[in-house]
């Protein structure tokens, strides 16, 4: 059995096999793209970039940050595909509040990768906006994110939200806190605020205020849960769960997600 598996693996890694596989993917990719309805493209796509560590382990790499780096290198491709499809906003979940508890030996290199990635997005001309609790991050990381937002605020085209130090519950708590402080500065009493409070008041204080809510949320690596991603904004989102780990995510996988989204009838409760 081990001999058969070894032969099979060598065949899969061979050039002829790779060339045939790539040709098949390109043909299938073209077919999927051809049948995508151009009038049913999501305005806002949220992406949970999951599976970097598992990809690294499956590739036999001892340093899981190698997976994070390969995953980071994939982001520019995704943004290009999104622009070509007509998407207006992409939110990338790069680091959750839970991730901040990882051992320093893994967290610190990951933060450096995120910083370099954000700076690369700035150089590529994307309009970058930080989404998360920057006060929980190391000063250097927070400064990179703030500088990226300030230096690209007037850029045209796709808006790229980089969710770093992000948690959905934390975002809602921060929004309520911001709302309370704003109303207190105006002299509004708690009783008056409670009487007038509406969901839109909270929405106006979210990290993504002023942006459309995500129409489509994609999660890679086969996990079928949100894990706290955009809890408020995703109330009416469509979800697409992809088996492939993020570093192996291809344009055809993105097109499949768009196809799945276009095939759904969004009734919004009506």
Describe the protein in words.
The structure is a single chain. The chain is 50% helix and 13% strand. With 270 residues, the protein is of the alpha/beta class. It has a 6-stranded parallel β-sheet with strand order 3-4-2-1-5-6, sandwiched between helices. Strand 3 (127-131), helix 6 and strand 4 (159-166) form a beta-alpha-beta unit. Helix 4 (65-85) runs parallel beside helix 5. The termini are far apart. The model has no long low-confidence stretch (mean pLDDT 91).
Brief descriptors of the model:
10 helices, alpha/beta, globular, 270 residues, six-stranded parallel β-sheet
Secondary structure: elements and pairs:
Elements: H1 2-13, H2 15-34, E1 44-48, H3 52-58, H4 65-85, E2 89-96, H5 104-123, E3 127-131, H6 139-151, E4 159-166, H7 168-185, H8 190-196, H9 199-203, E5 216-219, E6 238-241, H10 251-262
Parallel strand pairs: 1-2, 1-5, 2-4, 3-4, 5-6
Helix pairs in contact: 2-10, 3-4, 4-5, 5-6
């Amino acid at each position: 059995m081990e001999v058969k598996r070894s032969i099979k693996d060598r065949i899969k890694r061979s050039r002829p096999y790779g060339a045939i596989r790539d040709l098949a993917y390109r043909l299938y990719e073209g077919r999927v793209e051809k049948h995508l309805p151009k009038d049913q493209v999501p305005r806002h796509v949220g992406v949970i970039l999951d599976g970097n560590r598992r990809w690294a382990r499956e590739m036999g790499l001892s340093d899981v940050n190698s997976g994070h780096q390969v995953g980071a290198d994939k982001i520019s491709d995704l943004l290009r595909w999104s622009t070509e499809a007509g998407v207006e906003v992409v939110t990338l979940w790069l680091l959750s509040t839970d991730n901040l508890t990882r051992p320093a030996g893994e967290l610190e290199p990951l933060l450096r990768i995120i910083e370099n990635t954000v700076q690369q997005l700035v150089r590529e001309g994307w309009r970058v906006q930080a989404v998360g609790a920057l006060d929980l991050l190391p000063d250097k990381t927070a400064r990179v994110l703030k500088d990226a937002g300030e230096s690209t605020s007037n850029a045209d085209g796709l808006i790229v939200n980089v969710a770093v130090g992000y948690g959905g519950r934390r975002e809602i708590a921060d929004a309520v806190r911001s709302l309370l402080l704003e109303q207190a500065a105006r002299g509004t009493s708690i009783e008056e605020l409670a009487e007038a409070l509406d969901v839109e008041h909270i929405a106006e204080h979210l990290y993504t205020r002023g942006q459309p809510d995500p129409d489509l949320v994609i999660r890679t690596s086969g996990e079928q849960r949100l894990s706290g991603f955009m809890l408020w904004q995703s109330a009416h989102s469509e979800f697409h769960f992809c088996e492939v780990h993020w570093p192996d995510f291809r344009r055809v996988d993105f097109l499949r997600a768009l196809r799945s989204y276009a095939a759904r009838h969004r009734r919004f409760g009506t």
